[in-house]
Amino acid sequence: IALVGRPNVGKSTLFNRIAEERIAIVEDVPGVTRDRIYAKGEWLNQEFSIIDTGGITLEDENIDKAIFAQAEVAIDEADTIMYIEDAETGITDLDERIARILHRSDKPIVLVVNKVDNEKRRAEIYEFYGLGLGDPYPVSGSHGLGLGDALDAVIANFPTQEIEEDDTTINFS
To answer: Please, are residues 102 and 110 in contact by the beta-carbon 8 Å criterion?
Structure first.
């Protein structure tokens, strides 16, 4: 699962919450995460790898290009993408550009709207339907609210695994 989005939407906070440990550095300063960071996660007995990425800016600066290149690798490696948005700021032009890029990846995308810490913000998530990526899942990464519903949507995209029955018989005589 690749966590992608623009800077300071809470990707690293969600990454740490899913990994259940503080791995990624979380700061209110853009550009702290630049490379990909990997960890293991589990939800409903389903284990998976998660990838934290730096904030995508699509600027022409070398560092911005390098961060985007790292995010592209994560997107290529992932089976599912969690596109993280920020309820505080709403949809920006950059968000729309990133959504178009993700849509072209032909990967399942779960739209997660972070920083939904109160009822007012919860009522405002409907604008995110405008990105054309399906249902937005309201979460609060810092409080862990709503993350279960988002992870349910993520694992629904995983291939079903058939359990092989063991043909071994135990003889107790």
So the answer is: no
